[in-house]
Amino acid sequence: MTASLAPVHIYPGKGLGFISMPSDDLHAGNLLSSYIHAALGSSLHNVLTRVKSHPQTYPAIDLAYSSSDPLRNPVVLKLPANGLRLRFDGPDQRLRLIEVVDFSRVNLVYKNQDVMKGAKSAEQPTSSQGPSFRHVYNRLFGPSYPGEYIPRSDQSPYGTYVLSYPGVAFSFPLQHSAWSDHCDFVALLSSSAAQPATSMAIFQGSSWPEVRAKLFTQQPQYPRASAVVSKTRESFADEVEEFRILGAGRLEVSRRTSPPVSIILGETTPQDLIAEFGPPDAIYRKHDRRISIHRATGAVGGDTLNPSLSPRGGIEIADTDHSSSNSVTDDSDEETLGGQVSDPASVPAESFFNYFHHGFDAFISHPSTPGPAFPGSGLPDPTGPSASLSSQLTVTKIILHGNVPGSYPFNRHRRSRWSIHLDQSSEELNAESHFDEVSERLRGVWKGSYPNSKEGRAMQRPMVLNRGWGDSPESSVEFLGGWEETTAKGQRSGSDGHDGGLGNTELFGFPGLLFEVLKNGAVSCLTVY
């Protein structure tokens, strides 16, 4: 006897799930009483983590993205064995479109009604073609406004008729010779001129033509993690939207529903972090000291700097391990202490709070003087830690993870978005800015702070950091030259802007800021110290 495919429930405008939902479903403030497998608005990190945790259900995972500009172009997660394709926007990496491209590999159900007639099995799938127009129109979703006809783009005798309902649409091949602007679309699609649906799309909006142009730019209605909807504020911390870097060790964190919260390096305590962001997902003791030799001399890229000549005593090379970005091996000096902190007072000195679902890490240590204020920002330079705080553990660094596709630590954190506010008048830099723009702006800001051009040039020389030795990327990836044009697959090479799989990145330091940059100019990680 063949095993039946598990039913996958359709929730127009919301997502796909395995458990039926109440009729009122998701509205602002309502609780989600079922587990949505793929909810619109979910983060790439959230979806990919869950998919990878069920290898028997999802034996094949393909991730497609633009190798030259992965933060502005969409990211496509393909599940070929399940007949699904999920599209995420590039800047925020949130699920915007769910497509069923092979109806034989998924058992779709809408309000307890099978989308395809007849039961399917995992061993003997039926034709990849989907439901007929008559079944969709009469049995599943009911009457609809006229759809949109898309003429053929090649020599095929068929165009495509897209029938839209709020939050869901079906694509039917239609003989081009039979199409007319004045025809009765119901009669036409019920005739032999139309074939069964070849795909189905779930999206946020009233119709596909209305939402198509703003699919990747409109504000998602639902959170990045579906679990947030079913949790109260007391049991699940509000999700982070953006970090605003103000300089002088100050960050303002905007959140989805709660008021913004400030993080002040050298003052914010572990207790403050837990109160605002919840307990960390993991705590790592100690940190990487492999480049501490450069801190002793101020050497960057082979030049030796006089710390007294640099702004605020030189640009510190912040710790680059960030704990969570390196795999823990047998010879590592790191110790995982667990994700739940029952007594913040017991937190060890020099440890990382890892917030994978928020996209950042916090380094906990004894207070130190943070980086200086941006010239022209109007903020005063920070002073040293007060005597009352000198023995108390505080946050001394914040590490913001870009989760850039193609980077070595991809999918260990969800994407963290940030913006740098240099002054009141200039346009802000943000997490999607190409590093050439970031570097040019910051060099201009700090130009007058260096005593001579030689030191200014020395400050900008990058240090190469290798993250790839001893491990290998875990996901199957392909690179997109355009929207879906594959230019390379599998192992990366220098010809496409990557580093041949070694995981090499470059570190660029500015006062209070350390950028980890990929070869394509995307910022993989930003440390604020």
Automatic annotation (TrEMBL):
Alphabetical list of InterPro entries matching this protein: PHAF1 (IPR005373), PHAF1/BROMI (IPR039156)
BP term (GO), one: Golgi to plasma membrane protein transport
Transmembrane regions listed in the UniProt entry: none
UniProt GO cellular component terms: trans-Golgi network
Signal peptide: none
Pfam families: PHAF1 (PF03676)
Region (Disordered): 298-344, 367-389
Similarity comment: family membership: Belongs to the PHAF1 family.
Stated name of the protein: Uncharacterized protein
Native organism: Penicillium argentinense
Lineage: Eukaryota, Fungi, Dikarya, Ascomycota, Pezizomycotina
